[in-house]
Each structure stands twice: as structure tokens, then as C-alpha cells.
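Let's practice the habit of predicting before peeking. Look at the sequence and jot down your guess about where helices and strands might fall. Then scroll down.
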Amino acid sequence: RPGVAAADVRAAWAAAYGGERFVHLLPEGQWPTTKAVLGSNHVQLQLAVDERAGRVIVCAVLDNLTKGTAGGAVQSMNIALGLPEQAGLEQQGVAP
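Done guessing? Here is the structure:
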């Protein structure tokens, strides 16, 4: 909404996603790259606020084969079976 400062938006997103193992709000000024998440269950987020227009611009990158249906199925199965949510999903991306 108009009048909300960029720092407030970033703080809200950090509070919302700070405890999520697979969601990473990148430091201000660092933009996500698909190379960084390729073959992983991770998603990178970055945001910018256009205060003049009263809009938040969000950029998110993920590998939809792992973070998508396949990774989601493993994550859901882990939760349903009482296993650690991250079991089998913590591998790093495959690109250097």
C-alpha cells in the first residue's frame, strides 16, 4: 500500500520466511539466479519497492523439477510420515 517503506516490506518478508529452511530472502541488492537453485529444493527471493507507484516487485527463482511437484511430494510425504521436512531434499544446487 502507498506509504509503506521498503525497509518495512523487507522486515515483513524476513519475518515470514526467516524460519523456512528452503526459502531464502537474499541480501538487499543481490538478485536471485536460477544457477544457484538448479537441482535443489531451494527458492531464492528478492524484492524491491517502487514507493512512487506504491508497488512491491518480487523476483523468485526455483528449479520446478525439484521445488515443484517432485520435491513437494517428498516434502509432503516427510511431513505426513513424521520425518524431518528436509529429509532427502537438502542437496545443494548442481551448478557451480
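How did you do? The mean pLDDT is 86.
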